[in-house]
What does this fold into?
Amino acid sequence: MDFIFTKKAKLIFSILMLIGVVAMVVGFMTDHSDHHNRFWANIFVNGFFYFAISLGALFFLALQYATEASYMIALKRVIEGISQYIFVGSGILIVFFAAGSFHLHHVYHWMDISIMYEYVMEATVGLEHPEYIHELVDGAIKNSHFDKIIAGKSAYLNQTFFWIRTLVYLGVWCYFANLFRKRSLMEDAEGGTKIHFKNITYAAIFLVFFAFTSSTASWDWIMSIDTHWFSTLFGWYVFSGMWVSFLIFFVLISIWLKSKGYLPNVNKSHIHDAAKWMFAISFLWAYLWFSQFMLIWYANIPEEVTYYIIRIEHYKVLFFGIFFMNFLFPMVILIARDAKRQVGYLISVGCIIFVGHWLDIYMMIMPGSLGSHAHIGFMEVGMALGFLGLFLYVVFRAFSKAPISVVNHPFLDESNHLHI
Amino acid sequence: MKNDKVIYAMYDDDMTLLAGAKELVAKGVHIRDVFSPFPIHGLDPVIGIKQTRLAICAFIFGLVGLSLALSGMYYFMIVDWPMNIGGKPNDFFYQNLPAFVPISFEFTVLLAAHGMALTYFIRNWTLPGVTARNPYPETTNDRFVMEIHPSDSHISVDDLTEELKKTGTILIEER
It folds into this structure.
């Protein structure tokens, strides 16, 4: 069955995108923060959030392949469709990082060359590009901008290495997103088991690569905003967040597609299984959130607590609020079996924790970029809606390009008769 | 119901039993129980077994564990003998709450798991040393047995035997 991207849907998404563009323009004009940091940080929050959903989809798809799972095959095209946003998402991230490299924003402090050098030539102080040096020579004085902690990380956090890493992550992820899509369409045309067995190998390679890079990417892109701070657990925390954000969107869009009459073979058990994932990964997220918080709270080491001090001092309600919103709420409501089989519960819980995980990304990025001045206003809401429109537009376009239920897959029949 | 007759029908394949059970139930025969070495997928709704309430028990045991752990730690660490650990304030419960979370979690899981297992054993009366109520020991290996009380569905024993034979049973016994 083919998915039809209706004119009405196109119109709604275009209106959302228009709201986003208006919010961006108005926001950029009225943004008086240093180097338009608020505007750029918003680009990053939304750019990363929706990118992370598609990356979560890619990961989940690879997981299904590598484990030879059958139950989600009836919904495979939905997962695939979501993963197709990764190309646009990567583009937005590259624009954001490039803006940082050209000093259009100061979200990444370490991109500022002046804090990396201990000395500066006295004659050049005050010029546009003072001459910084590492060694004390004649005519050099102490550099007042020097930041010893960040300079100590310069072997890893320098622009050349950062760009190499970023391009490798994005390139390989996009390659696999394209590869899985292509092979899935090939499988539809050819049938048989050859493609299926080869997919296991590709998925395993992707998962190994992803296991490393999902961590390092979140260090490079998000943790380095709070440059002085580090947490080894941060990568998993971001990863669990992207995984659960994807699952929420996946459950919601599957329910919607089913209600529109697509996916005739998807029954309550498929939705139940997906909802179980959403429930379980909410726990994984909460577990990692709390593990990171409790260890740092307990040890109370000055260089570790900085991340939490700024968040607790200025954003106490939001910071602890999202924890309860994203953990207790799904836990209490979705714990019962019947709740996971009723779309009403799933839609209401899903919508709330979807916002909750957007706020989680917001909480990761904003305090480091804007200090205590971040707040949610027209720009934040408008841009989030605009990016949502773009995301849905791209995902729906991907849905409409291939049959919304796979035609050939070794496990298709098994999945169609899923019963739990 | 002391003098109630019981018919046991044995099968050597779970799918044959499931198909047979569907036919019998369609003819109005009530199947009391099925003995099987493993859970037969899709059988419960056919023979009208209700959803287990074990999950509710587990939830209650978990709540008991959670409240015991929290009240215990409140008494030990705040009321009775407050300790200075890393200079953390200990005047109020909430100030030390993050440190109490792992223990609360563990104790919740401990009670939920053990309570659930014990409830299961007691309810099925399969505690150590208890005589098995299983009519055929083979059903723990490779045989599947249906238990039918003809009085439940007002069917004569002969008619029932006749019906059972059609479903591919390998042994019919009356006890």
